[in-house]
Amino acid sequence: MIKYLLNKMLISMQKKYDYDVTYMQDILSTDLNAFFKYLKFQSMAGYRGGLPAAPLYAARLRAILWDDCGPCTQLLVNMALEAGVPANQISAIVNKDLAALPDELAQIVEFTDLVLAHDPDADDIRPHIRAMWGEQGLIAIAFGISSCRVYPALKYTLGYGKACSRVVVNEQTLTPSDKNRSVTG
């Protein structure tokens, strides 16, 4: 009965976001304990630390783009739109168009890319992030960066990784590419 209810939850997510949940369904049908571990991870991934939606999704989107350029990215775009992040900001985050972003978002985009590249220049931006969003905000950004990298790794490991695809932000179609990983922009 519990598997049935959890599967209904997954199907609801699939319908809401037009997102393939087969990998989660396979985990659920194979090992209920493993699925519960997965759900516990969702708790960390959902931590906001009082951060507004735009900076949180700036970090999450840049992190997901590092490892995925397909369905996971589209899912985050849809969630960011649902959370009220303006479409023009989402497009600028995906395209790494720092000039089109407010300074606080541009700093998070740049910081996230530097962190993902293990570039020590992230140390220069971290104090600004702390000043803007506090220690809890920095933790939320850290959790957002870290957790977004898990999903593509999990999906690719289980054989559900997808090739690059276009990302749609409202009516605008974007094509993420390796240039979006560039630390120097």
Provide the succession of SSEs.
Answer: HHHHHHHHEE
Main pleated sheet: 2 strands, antiparallel
The CATH topology of the largest domain turns out to be: AhpD-like
Average predicted confidence as pLDDT: 90
Runs with pLDDT <50, length 5+?
none
Organism: Pseudoalteromonas rubra
Protein name: Carboxymuconolactone decarboxylase-like domain-containing protein
Brief digest:
It comes from Pseudoalteromonas rubra. The chain has 185 residues and is mainly α.
What would you say this structure looks like, in words?
With 185 residues, the chain is mainly alpha-helical. The protein has two domains: 1-45, no CATH class; 49-181, AhpD-like. It contains eight helices and two strands. It has helices at residues 2-17, 22-30, 32-45, 53-67, 71-82, 87-95, 103-116, 122-158; strands at 167-169, 172-174. A two-stranded antiparallel sheet has the order 1-2. Helix 3 packs antiparallel against helix 8. The longest helix is centred in the C-terminal third of the chain and has 37 residues, at 122-158. It is globular and about 50 Å long. The model has no long low-confidence stretch (mean pLDDT 90).
